[in-house]
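Retro notes (design track)

What went well: tokenization of the new backbones is finally stable.
What didn't: we kept losing track of which sequence belonged to which structure.
Fix going forward: every design gets posted as structure first, then sequence, in one message. First example under the new rule, 129 residues:
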């Protein structure tokens, strides 16, 4: 049974990489796979080679913006219940700025910075849910 699960994971990973075949920039591919593995972005098949990188960039942007919006909504609900999350609120306010830096550079370190902050905020939120 375990061997079948491993084979399924390998097939799934290969299929996701096949979806990104049209993207020539290996850094963008890597970042898309990182976001997909974190559950923030769904990798979709790209048919047009000309627009592949722009499509991936737009999907990254939309996915990260949606995640930040979800965090904002959750924070709002927790504040309404009277829970003080001021330190993490500061980190949440900084996220859109970090996103703008990432969208300007598309560097892995900027993406990792955003994901690290998202993980910290998620962990704190889970304590109060």
């Amino acid at each position: 049974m375990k061997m079948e699960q491993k084979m399924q994971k390998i097939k799934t990973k290969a299929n996701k990489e096949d979806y990104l075949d049209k993207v020539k920039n290996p850094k963008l591919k890597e970042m898309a796979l990182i976001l997909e593995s974190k559950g923030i972005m769904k990798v979709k098949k790209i048919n047009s080679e000309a627009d592949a990188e722009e499509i991936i960039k737009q999907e990254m942007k939309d996915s990260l913006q949606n995640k930040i919006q979800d965090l904002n909504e959750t924070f709002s609900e927790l504040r309404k219940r009277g829970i003080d999350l001021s330190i993490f609120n500061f980190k949440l306010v900084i996220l859109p700025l970090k996103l703008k830096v990432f969208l300007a550079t598309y560097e892995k370190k900027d993406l990792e910075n955003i994901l690290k902050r998202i993980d910290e905020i998620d962990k704190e939120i889970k304590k109060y849910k």
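Added context from the reviewer: Residues 88 and 120 are 8 Å apart (CA to CA).
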